[in-house]
Amino acid sequence: MARGGQHNNDNRFQPLTSPTSGSTITQSDQSLMENTNNPFFLHSGDHPGLVLVLHLLTGSNAKNTWSRAILMALNANNKLRFVDGTLSQPITDDPTAEIWSRCNNMVTFWLLNAISKEIVDSILYLESAHAVWADLHEHFHQSNAP
């Protein structure tokens, strides 16, 4: 249904304006965010305060156990590709750049929520969930770690 309540099949890819940023989101981008099999899909229960694991990474606890639990939770939420680097940031002009950024920020928040404050302070300003994951891997690498 088109804006104003009229049916119009020619507007499937008409741009919508994002109410928060004023940027343009097309109908096809919208369908990416609504497809539950797409890594850009965010469930209504997904929010920045979501806790994926019960135990925080402190540096002294078992990194292998913590990383395994995080990887399982991210995979269950179809967001593993944001941390393993297989879904890299699109160029700024790409129509999915804003969607990628929103999902990347959500995944980054989820990671930060699972890490002690002492460690968070050192990674807070990294640009992506993948950069956070790579930094953690570098600092806490053990055999079988990510």
Beta-strand content bin? under 5%
Tell how many strands the DSSP assignment holds: 2
Major sheet details:
2 strands, antiparallel
| Major β-sheet strand ordering | 1-2
* General shape: globular
Can you tell me the residue ranges where pLDDT is under 50 for at least 5 consecutive residues?
A: 1-22
The Rg value, from CA coordinates, equals 18 Å
How much helix, percentage-wise, in residues?
40-55%
Query: Termini, distance in Å?
Result: 46 Å
Structural class: mainly alpha
Sketch the topology as an H/E string, one letter per element: EEHHHHHH
Number of helices: 6
Our count of domains comes out at 2
Quote the average pLDDT. 80
Protein name: Retrotransposon Copia-like N-terminal domain-containing protein
InterPro entries: Copia-like_N
Region (Disordered): 1-27
Domain Retrotransposon Copia-like N-terminal: 43-90
Please provide a brief summary of the model:
This protein has 146 residues and is mostly helical. The chain has 6 helices and 2 strands; from the N terminus they run ββαααααα.
Index terms:
146 residues, mainly alpha, 2 domains, two-stranded antiparallel ribbon, 6 helices, 43% helix, globular, disordered N terminus, Copia-like_N, Retrotransposon Copia-like N-terminal domain-containing protein
Task: Give your account of this protein's structure.
This is Retrotransposon Copia-like N-terminal domain-containing protein. Pfam families: Retrotran_gag_3. Residues 43-90 form the Retrotransposon Copia-like N-terminal domain. InterPro entries: Copia-like_N (IPR029472). The chain is mainly alpha-helical and 146 residues long. It has two domains: 1-34, no CATH class; 47-140, no CATH class. The chain is 43% helix and 4% strand. Strands 1-2 form a two-stranded antiparallel sheet. A hairpin with a 6-residue loop joins strand 1 (15-17) and strand 2. Helix 4 runs parallel beside helix 6. The chain is globular. The protein starts with 14 loop residues before the first strand and ends in a 6-residue tail after the last helix. Mean pLDDT is 80; it is low at 1-22.
